[in-house]
Design goal:
Elements (H helix, E strand, L loop, with lengths): L34 E6 L6 H11 L5 H14 L1 E7 L1 H13 L3 E2 L3 E2 L1
Antiparallel strand pairs: 1-2, 1-3, 1-4
Helix pairs in contact: 1-2
Amino acid sequence: MYPARVRGSSQPAMSTETVERPRASGPGAGLGGSWLVIVRNDDHNTFEHVAGTLSKVIPGVDYGRGMSFANTIHSSGQAIVWTGHREPAEHYWEQLAAAGLTMAPLEQH
């Protein structure tokens, strides 16, 4: 096909039509979904430190639940301590790592 011409001109007509491509995913793709915050077992953190840190950092985790996570981490080698959107997952991951816990890389599930 040839470009349309403006009447009485040899110039092609200018198109002002905006063509939008369909989105592969929604806005902020990769930020939502289930991101896993995983603490791994190590030889330098005590059960008490792990439990106390988890209770201070992770919403809804009290010391008793933190101790349960510490037992799982010790016996299984790791535990998923929080799942949710990426931004808070990154925040919790950074706080736990700063407190000395051994962290697995963030994973999207």
